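Bug report (template v2)

What were you trying to do?
Predict the complex of my protein with adenosine-5'-diphosphate-glucose.

What happened?
Run completed; filing so the output is reviewed.

Input:
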Amino acid sequence: MGRLIAISNRTAADPKARAGGLAVAVWESLKETGGSWFGWSGNLVDDVPRGANVFRDEGVEFVLTDLTHEEHENYYLNYANRVIWPVFHYRLDLAHFNGEAFKTYSDVNQRIAGIVANRLQRDDTVWVHDYHFLLMGDALRHAGWEGPTGFFLHIPFPPPEMFRAIPEHHWIARAMCAYDVIGFQSSHDRANFVRYLVDQFDGEELGEDLIRVFGSTTRVAAYPIGIDPDGFRDAAQTAKADRAAERISRFLGDRHLVIGVDRMDYSKGLPQRFEAVGQLFDAHPEMDGKVSVTQIAPPSRSKVEEYQELRTQLDQLAGRINGDHGDLDWIPLRYLARSYSREELAGLFRIARVGLVTPLRDGMNLVAKEFIMAQPEEDPGVLVLSEFAGAAEQLRDALIVNPHDKFKVADAIYQALTMPLEERQARWRKLKAVVEEQDIGWWRNRFLKDLTPAD
Ligand code: ADQ
């Protein structure tokens, strides 16, 4: 393969952002091939920038553009995060359709495609990431680029009935099919997209994941993303992880820890999770004082008003549950609206008896995989996992729940808390084997092999 060219809204230009699995995987390919990473600089300016900030780090070239205030408002906040994000997470009720924002979204895709196309070389392979750049492949083709161009969607893809609610759905779908390879997190997301192409545009399935539509052929496949399993297991053994585990143990005493770690987002099902925790204590008074549920959820994109409402809702729910069930020496549900380092989270996962990963809809959910890798073999915790996370297709030995059903989620937490050691170990070994085998390298290699089959 020639150079790998990555395009994503946020890049790992800041060395601190190179710790996560995705950044590590992309970073490795970029370093190996002397590639480039294009994206947003994080800065906002008044006038449309001419050109980009270019610099090199460890042999990787970063090409970052500022966004104007108007671009940030319409491309990022209004279209990516208030149209695509809610609809793709099955939340039509939260979508704010906005034709003007689509225009800016399209303009930004084209503007960045122009910057990329100017710097592309003949043997390059382009890999575009996520929902900010659905139109990038098409924009690159219009700018004259003909080389291999793939796209990976990190979030779910909705059923056609929902996707069609987006007024610009046909533009988006047509533009997406300019990519040579379109990757989804799960076979379910892939099936939704294929059904849309077949129903709406007479797409024809040719076998081996190939679809003929709009006069050309595109590969549409599922590539479930993984983590760096050894890296996370090691993170759970660091001094920082030990310190975090010790600090929370002081508070826990001999109580079991039930942990949830999510960005504060309505897709993560946090109010429903809190309700299920309330139900656990309602149904099992014998658990009073024996369990401490800790939810870590730092606010994200807090400018968008739905997130502010979610915050208020969580504050109220946690207050009510603690008011109803708490005691002088026991806080049943602790909720920390702040973020912790990867090592600290790994340390908390390590000592947790139960990991709660109950999104209403999630592309993959890496926390589920991280939780598994942090567990000690001699006394592993149990993962309670939503059937609506992409991870549920791979992690069949977790306790799989419907996050909308607080009774079943409460039952699953109870089952996890009372599960015999042998069953916990048997489930955990199978889960660990999957996470180790289908790791971030497996994901990257499968995608890049399909994108550049000749190599
Ligand atoms: P996210 O929605 O951000 O990602 P997720 O996959 O769970 O969701 O988490 C990404 C990373 O952020 C994990 O490494 C996790 O440890 C970290 N993280 C989460 N909450 C944190 C917290 N409270 N404090 C500190 N770190 C935290 C999107 C999609 C997912 C998909 C990923 C990768 O929405 O469905 O799995 O991309 O493709």
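What did the reviewer find?
Residues 99-119 form the longest helix (21 residues). Residues 20, 22, 154-155, 225, 261-263, 296-298, 339-340, 345, 362-367, 370 surround adenosine-5'-diphosphate-glucose (CB under 6 Å).
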